[in-house]
Fold this protein.
Amino acid sequence: MVPVLRHIVEHKRREVAESRRRVPLEELKERISELGRPRNFFRAVVDDRHPDDMRVIAEVKRKSPSAGVIREDFDPVAIARGYWQAGAAAISCLTDAEFFGGDLAYIHAIRDAVPLPVLRKDFIIDDYQVWEARAAGADAILLIAECLHEREIIDFQILATELQMTTLLEVHSLDSLWRVINHVGFPHAGYGLLGVNNRDLETMKTDFGNALRIADMVEAPTRRVMVAESGVRTPADMKRLRSHGIHIALVGESLMREPDPGAALRALLA
């Protein structure tokens, strides 16, 4: 595990321990029992009726370790509403407070304002966080391969599927891809996506070609559920993804830096 990721995970373990103490698991389960079914995140972004269309998971993010504060006038609900009106297929919401300025409460607030499914984007390292995500209203969770053992990935996928949430299994490199590719879509194909992050965890630099190279190495059924993450900025980038069989992009920082993120998304999809 690279140093920056190790630092975040160590902090997250302390955070989860505190959350367990403050809100027992049984209380989370009780909250979940009072919720309706999750929205279908997988079907929102994998559209077999229009397989050649590009779908964007638009991200709500205030800051990041690599970029610092991205947006000072941060209103997650207004931003999500703008994304929805501009044609986003789904919303990604950062919930890590320490490093990304997020909050779990943003998920319910966003879902109350827009009809799109919402991904909890965080560093999931404990099954408690999967329950916590659903209790907070999340329709999907992110699993980062580089900070999880295979057994953990499998366990979290099973639990997420039982809770009817989609999993976005994210890799940053070919090594990680080959380690987890057989787990994409486990235990149910209709609940699993493969994310390819173009950011190098060592240098924190973005290489847009990373997703393109990986797309060329996987079979068509896997490309169908691939999500390109980081570095997608222009309609030309979207065209390049489509030419390599990738039809889903998670876009955040480039939109959040614009005066009107919704208008920026509309231009990206034009």
About this structure: The chain has a mean pLDDT of 95. The first helix runs from residue 3 to 22.
